[in-house]
Design a protein that fits this description.
heterodimer, A: Alpha-Beta Plaits, four-stranded mixed β-sheet, two-stranded antiparallel ribbon, 12 strands, globular, disordered C terminus, B: alpha/beta, Barwin-like endoglucanases, six-stranded mixed β-sheet, five-stranded parallel β-sheet, 14% strand
Chain lengths: 360, 881
């Protein structure tokens, strides 16, 4: 087997034991692909029933070879998705337990720094429930919001709620950041996600102000940073790190139409349970053409720090365009007048000089 | 104690099939987020999640129903549920599926069994059971025993005079009879001599001395009104919990329960778990899919560490550690004392002899009692707290702290740090130089001048430990699942695995004692200790002297001495010295040479018998015979799991029953082991084949769970005014371990300690990791808005928290998730009781530092298992800025 990672030796054959093995019947010797050696460990054994086929692990990229066309996620969260078709996140706040595994998995996979003080020690706690991350930033691509909603006048706190939701870049179908980026550093990928190529970013900060969700921030290196949708993992057919780490499937990843269906079904079942406050946020095209990362929440969006009606920067294009048009007309008129005056003066001057008649 | 094996009865994945899940004594979402995946799945399928807890936590946030209770009042709540179920389900023919509950309870539990007439309940003795000795603070359980008549009469009372055996009279069975048996050819005659006469039963559950009637009387005072007054849980919420859980039980539905250390860490912890066992028996929720009780374990492989114990009082597979406190002088005495002759435990001689063969190899022979005399014997309670107390008194010379940080995690931690200073030597193996390793220079005692570094004589050896991924071996987690892990990389530099360290240490000790002739050293001289790796095993790695984990696993699994062929399972173990078996319950994990079932990775989406290996015998739901009716057919199609197909037991799991024993098989009075039990007795590890609502043996603080206040409580015991706290809890009365008296006005608030998702235990695996430390950067104390207002404390203020042992500082986190309780003070007056909470992950080292919360806790212990009481104590608060 060739090396999956440059600079590291090839995997030992022992690793093949991790591969799913065909099922065997009880009390039959395990199938062996090579002669077992004394003391060797083989990962096969009995099972009382035929077993369903196993999801295949997505193939890791091999330098110099084409990346696979179809992704299959990971054994923990198998999913089939294809290059060229949109994928997304469905984040269901009603299943979120606020464990922050998404935050940690994201920082670990993307090797993002923790926010520590100058002395290397942790910063003071925020005092805002269990939230010490507080917002998305150039180095924090997932943020779990904690919303405490208790009636403090009632000692029994009847109907009290503690809601949690993992926020992330929305990967908008109509993305403000992408619209304003002057260098082309922000691009739309073949998975319909929005990706910042940090080596092309010139640090102009237009995207920071253009994002209606406040997702993007500048990093210490002076370039814009935000969720990459684990573009590197997608290209290798793998589930993004946050979705893979989520223990309760609060974060679902998959082809956008599939997770939209899942979201619709979940919403319907919650409504059936009588949880009528449950709503989808950003699932429909009415919000910026649809968000590729959309949410199920059980309270008003503001409670989770989400804008009720996010807008694109180009919303200003029509009025400013009209103004521009009027200005252009005025300029045009003025210049016509100016040119006319110039021409009259020129003609007059020529006349005075008694030159040949102009064919004007 | 209720069902026969000290482990979770089911597996996490099966929770997805629960129609109701009652989580109590656990903040499962917070502390077991991965296992909580299956709770979330059950909820998605329409299951109801109930959380009963002193605080509104991340688990409560997802619950359909949250019931607040005062910390330490759990048995009142559970007793209330038991009483409600007896009244409204078991004795209410109009309750749906009434017959199901009656049949389950009558056939599968000891509810019909009659208890001896000398037994007196807490109802009779104002909070005490019969047999209590106030001087010794302990019970003699002689009067708790079943009524055993030699001849089974229709009226059990008529035969009382013929009672024999342990209650006096000539010994027809028991220890003396066992010792008189001829064991020259095997131990079966000894086991046979131990068999008692069969206990008497009243299947109609009417006899006033039958367990069901005793239970009913015992819990009669646990009414919804009392629950409200003692726990603070509003009555309607309590009733909603009772109804929701009961309505989601029955033939077509099942409810499961999950608990963790918030039950165990009480002076009545074992009894809280017992109460859960009784409730699940009454509701028929045991041995069935979507039912059971999940004991959530706190660490990776903590289950493994009790199976292959790091516990002082047991050897492998839950056999008792030989002790000088019982008749354990010889192997025969040990077996005559320990063997349970009328359950699967009748095979214990085979497991014990095979264990001794694993210990001492060829030197263990029948002639020398299989080396039994070389085995260490305990002389008392050697659990963590008594050991640290002895250390504080200068009676302990050295200590290995491996994967442990008692300077932070130990109770009354100041006492424990001062105890460390009295050691001659201390070996710490860990990833980081944590608080225990650096107590001699950084501890609060050194900073305050109470201890001077120059005076501390302790020599500290700090050894770098490898990460689990840097070595091969197995994990055994909550669901008793043994999973093999491959080595991913060599550890850096001098870091080594625990396996390497233990093996190398053993090799050196054996060398040290090689020539000793002292009798006490023969054990270590004769110990088998050959786990040298094969060349192939270490070929890929830099470290060439790691022991062979596969050889160790094979010894644990067991093999035939003659040809070293692995045992296919514990059924092949022999008591004649012809087999080796390191841990009988793991036998079967390595059934053939080269075949390691712990490394299996064949999931099937549900029971997944092809994934890893679960002890015993790869069973995933234990006691699964109870998933079928007495006649062997499933209780319902929806809850089908294991059933009798006319020839054998079959189903989705490995049957927890003799596979070809028909449901109609009668019990044999002259049989031993499972022969003594009938085809309808699902609890094969129990002496009577039944689940125990009433525990005649095995518990030192009473046969039935009874509410006692914590050792420290702001209120008196409302249920038993003459008995505030447990009459049997263990306490170290010392000047450096003072306790607040009950209702001490100096310490008016209830304090409970807990863990956060973001940190791990004493923080060694999280406070040094930037990505985790930043998520919860400081120690805080959770305070209700009401108490904060009363004390003039604002969010993020610094607060001094004091207990009789110490005072510490924490930042206030003022929240609506905590609430004041209106509680009866035990003397008829309702008063407001405030409760605060402290996560205990912090210490004086690492990227995130803070006070040691365990400085506040005390050295009091549950009398059964010596577990401390970290979940309910008292404190005072003041704002300091």
């Amino acid at each position: 087997m060739s090396s999956l990672f440059p600079g590291l030796p090839p995997l030992e054959p022992r690793a093949a034991q991790l591969q799913p093995t065909p099922p065997t019947l009880p009390n039959q010797p395990a199938p062996v692909t090579k002669e077992p050696t004394p003391g060797a460990v083989t990962g096969t054994g009995p099972s009382s029933q035929p077993l369903p086929p196993q999801p295949q692990v997505g193939t890791a990229p091999v330098p110099g070879q084409p990346v696979p066309f179809t992704g299959t996620g990971t054994p923990a969260s198998p999913v089939t998705f294809k290059r060229g078709e949109p994928v997304g996140f469905f984040t269901d706040a009603t299943l979120c337990i606020g464990c922050k595994a998404c935050e940690v998995a994201c920082k670990e996979w993307n090797q993002l720094p923790a926010e520590l003080g100058k002395d290397g020690q942790t910063l003071p706690m925020s005092g805002q429930s269990y939230d010490n991350t507080l917002h998305l930033s150039g180095t924090t691509y997932r943020h779990v919001a904690f919303v405490e909603n208790f009636d403090l006048s009632d000692p029994n706190r009847v109907g009290g709620q503690w809601s949690m939701m993992s926020d992330v870049c929305k990967h908008c179908v109509q993305a403000g950041c992408l619209e304003v980026c002057p260098t082309g550093a922000i691009m739309r990928t073949e998975f319909d996600t929005v990706y910042i190529q940090q080596d092309i970013c010139n640090g102009c900060r237009y995207c920071v102000t253009a994002c209606p969700f406040g997702v993007i921030e500048m990093t210490e290196q002076g370039v814009a940073g935000k969720c990459t949708f684990c573009y590197d993992r997608l290209q290798s057919g793998l589930t993004p790190a946050c979705a893979q780490a989520c223990p309760t499937a609060s974060i679902s990843f998959g082809p956008i139409d599939q997770i939209q269906q899942r979201a619709d079904a979940r919403l319907a079942s919650l409504h059936q349970e009588g949880r009528t406050k449950a709503q989808l946020y950003g699932r429909d095209p009415s919000m910026l053409g649809g968000l590729n990362a959309f949410f199920l929440i059980e309270d008003s969006p503001e409670k989770y720090g989400l804008p009720v009606a996010p807008q694109l920067p180009s919303r200003n294009n029509l009025p400013s365009g009209l103004l521009g048009l009027a200005a252009a007309v005025l300029t045009g008129l003025a210049s016509m007048l100016a040119f006319r005056k110039h021409r009259v003066e020129t003609v007059a001057a020529e006349g005075e000089e008694g030159g040949a008649a102009h064919a004007s | 104690m209720s069902f026969g094996r000290g482990a979770a009865t089911t597996f996490q994945q099966d929770i997805a099939n629960s129609d109701a899940i009652l989580i109590m004594g656990s903040d499962m979402a917070e502390c077991h987020p991965v296992a909580f995946r299956w709770v979330a799945k059950a909820k998605e399928r329409g299951g109801k999640l109930i959380h009963v807890d002193p605080r509104f936590t991340r688990t409560s946030a997802l619950a359909n129903l949250y019931a607040p209770i005062r910390a330490g009042s759990d048995i009142v709540f559970l007793g209330g549920l038991i009483s409600w179920v007896i009244q409204n389900v078991l004795e209410n023919p109009s309750f749906p599926n009434y017959d199901f509950y009656r049949q389950f309870v009558t056939t599968y539990t000891n509810a019909p069994t009659i208890v001896g007439d000398q037994f007196r309940d807490t109802e009779d003795l104002e909070g005490l059971f019969s047999g209590y000795d106030p001087q010794k603070r302990s019970y003699d359980n002689a009067t708790w025993q079943y009524d055993r008549t030699v001849i089974r009469g229709t009226d059990p009372r008529a035969a009382d005079s013929e009672r024999s055996g342990q209650q006096g009279g000539p010994q027809q069975y028991g220890f003396d009879a066992g010792m008189a048996a001829d064991t020259s050819k095997g131990f079966d005659p000894l086991v046979r001599a131990l068999v008692p006469p069969r206990e008497t039963r009243d299947e109609s559950l009417q006899n006033p001395r039958c367990v069901f009637q005793i239970l009913k009387r015992h819990y009669a005072r646990y009414t919804p009104e009392v629950v409200e007054k003692a726990t603070g849980c509003p009555r309607d919420v309590f009733l909603q919990v009772a109804r929701t859980f009961a309505e989601n039980s029955g033939p077509e539905r099942t409810g499961s329960m999950a608990y963790a250390v918030a039950w165990t860490q009480h002076t009545t912890g074992v009894q809280m778990i017992r109460a859960a066992g009784i409730l699940q028996q009454l509701l028929g929720n045991i041995g069935r899919p979507g039912g059971g009780i999940l004991a959530l374990r706190g660490h990776a492989t903590i289950q493994g560490s009790t199976d292959n114990p790091t516990l002082y009082h047991s050897i492998t597979g839950y056999m008792s550690q030989p002790t000088v406190l019982k008749r354990h002088e010889t192997l025969k005495e040990y077996l005559a004392t320990e063997v349970q002759p009328t359950a699967y435990w009748a095979n214990q001689p085979k497991f014990m002899v095979s264990y001794l063969k694993a210990m001492y190899g060829d030197t263990a022979t029948r002639e020398n009692d299989f080396g039994y005399a070389w085995h260490p014997r305990i002389v008392g309670d050697h659990s963590h707290i008594p050991m640290m107390v002895a250390m504080a008194d200068g009676k302990v010379q050295g200590m290995f702290a491996i994967g442990q940080n008692p300077a932070v995690g130990g109770q009354n931690a100041g006492l424990q740090r001062r105890a460390l200073a009295r050691l001659n030597w201390l070996v710490v193996r860990d990833y980081f130089e944590h608080e225990t390793a650096s107590f001699w220079k950084d501890s609060p005692e050194v900073r305050s001048g109470q201890l001077k570094t120059a005076d501390i004589q302790t020599e500290v050896f700090f050894l770098p430990a490898a990460h689990p991924a840097e070595g091969e071996g197995t994990f055994t987690n909550t669901q008793r699942l043994i999973q093999f892990k491959e080595k991913a990389a060599d550890p850096p530099d001098d870091a080594r695995t625990d396996l390497w360290f233990t093996y190398q240490l053993g090799k050196r000790l054996k060398e040290l004692y090689a020539n000793s002739t002292a009798p006490r050293d023969q054990g270590i001289r004769n110990l088998t200790w050959d786990y040298e790796p094969t060349a192939e095993e270490v070929a890929p790695w830099r470290i060439k002297d790691d022991p062979s984990s596969v050889k160790i696993l094979k010894e644990i699994n067991g093999y035939r001495v003659a040809d070293r062929v692995p045992l296919a399972g514990f059924g092949e173990a022999k008591d004649d010295g012809s087999t080796v078996c390191g841990n009988w319950i793991y036998s079967g994990v390595y059934p053939q040479e080269g075949r390691n079932l712990a490394a299996n990775r064949n999931p099937d989406g549900y029971v997944s018998l092809g994934w890893g290996f679960a002890w015993p015998a790869n069973r995933r739901i234990m006691y699964n015979r109870a998933s079928a009716r007495p006649d062997g057919q499933p209780w319902s199609d929806r809850k089908r799991y294991v059933w009798w197909d006319g020839q054998r037991w079959t189903g989705y799991d490995v049957p927890d029953f003799a596979v070809t024993k028909a449901p109609t098989t009668p019990a044999k009075d002259d049989g031993i082991g499972l022969d003594w039990q009938s085809g309808t007795d699902p609890f094969i590890m129990k002496a009577d084949g039944r689940a125990w609502m009433f525990a005649p043996t095995g518990l030192v603080d009473g046969p039935l769970p009874t509410h006692y206040e914590a050792a420290e409580s702001p209120v008196h015991n409302l249920l038993y005014p003459k008995q505030d706290s447990s009459p049997a809890y263990k306490y170290f009365a010392r000047d450096d371990n003072p306790l607040a008296p009950i209702a001490d006005a100096r310490f008016p608030y209830v304090l409970t300690t807990y863990r956060l998702t973001e940190h791990y235990l004493s923080g060694v695996m999280s406070r040094w990791l930037p990505w985790l430390a930043e998520l919860q950067p400081e120690l805080f104390i959770e305070i209700s808005v009401e108490l904060a207002r009363e004390k003039g404390i604002a969010n993020l203020d610094r607060v001094r928290v004091s207990s009789p042992r110490a005072s510490i500082e924490a930042k206030a986190l003022v929240t609506g998730r905590l609430r004041p309780f209106s509680i009866d003070d035990g003397q008829g007056t309702m008063r407001t009781v405030h409760q605060v909470g402290l996560p205990w992950h912090w210490g004086y080292k690492g990227l995130s530092t803070g006070s040691v919360v365990n400085d506040l806790t005390s050295l009091v212990m549950d009398p059964n298992v010596s577990m401390h009481e970290g979940k309910a104590l008292v404190c005072n608060l003041e704002r300091i800025g």
